[in-house]
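Our working data are protein records whose layout never changes between entries. An example says more than a description, so a record of this kind follows.
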Amino acid sequence: MTDYKAKSGAALLARVSTQEQALNGHSIGEQIERMKAYCKAMGWTVYDEYIDAGYSGSNTDRPALQRMISDIHAGRIDKVLVYKLDRLSRSQKDTLELIEDVFLASGVDFVSISENFDTTTPFGRAMIGILAVFAQLEREQIKERMAMGRLARAKEGRYSGQDRIPIGYDYVDGMLVRNPYEASLVKQVFRLYIEGYSPKMIASRLNGEGRTHRYGSWSESTVRNVLRRRTYIGEIMYAGEWYPGLHEPIISQEDFEKAQKVRLLKHDRCCSRNIRPGKAGSYLAGFLVCAQCGARYGKNKNASRTKNGIRYYDKYTCYSRSKKTKHLIKDPSCKNKIWDMRELDGIIFGKIEMLAQNPERIEQIQSTNDRNRRVKTLALQISDLENRIGKLVDLYITADMPQFILDQKVSTMNERREKLRKELEQIEQPAEPKLSREEAAEIAEAFPEILLRQDFTEIRDALEKLIDHIELDNENVTIHWNFV
């Protein structure tokens, strides 16, 4: 990138994805050169180049675009240039919001040199709205064609080539090819399960023998995913449907069916206990963490009652606030929100159904920017705890607070701070996700149908696969997914 950095000037915004570059030839270099030539002809000073290489235009969560917006707010840019309107965004809504709410609101002109118009004229502003509609239409058509192509491949028995291929296979020339070492692991998983080993025991045994797979060590959820995957009997899945595949099976139909019978038997045993939410369990028990004191949330069993004809449903309450289980209390002064179980369950279920409706959201959640936002949140929470500790010490000095109260409160806050610091370290050095993008999409797509069946055990199983934990901070609900 050329080091312009004048006090203010034009921003050259370029974007291209690998697919678009191959199809259309609008390379980054070509876009920049044409915009530089345009600026020279107009006598404009270039402030900087903002390049998003390999990023989709379907959203604005792109590093160079966000950096440019920051420079606009700082008053460093007086106009934005793009080679073509869809380099800014392929979303009509995003395009108009960027132009009207960011550029024009900051007194910054917008110019697209291919369409030969700018926002300094009424005609240019009208044309932006029209072309934004067609940019979004093109994006929807591309998405539809890609979906049709993947469906056609699945019907032909070909794997669609997602980013993580199933354990037991390699992806060679558009086909799944059996990997001898990993195939032996898959066979061992099925054999041990049929013999009566639980998924947790199987994972422990394989890890103990040092028999890891390409993605790392085994976990209980990985074993469960292997056991239910029909890929191993020669089938291909797309959009929740299975089709006969062209690849070589690893497991016989007979062994696969034996394993499914074992799964169903265990499932029936759970169902025979008549477990229902609000009685012997709750959907989100074990997932909920208080962001303010670090304690767990639990079901308030005395909250479900009828009064004056109005039904009061069970609640999720921070253990520190409920004060009913002494050894689980982290901070007796915690005032974090008490949640209606149905309300919070509905929020979490809605988030998963959104993933089912828009699988691209899984990739967006996995992006670096999501991690950066979490880093900022953790840093703010750590800073807030440090400020609260400082205020407590000041109160101790000036208001004669008893020493034991100070020690108790500071100890609780220090414990919470250390947990946040450890989480911050883990995020800055992320480990391999427990769940692949493909596996997450499969579970999310099946979730609406699982909800319709109203089977408590099945819903809990899906939640455990998708979610690591859920952080509650009054009205703010943060899901920590297993695919991140």
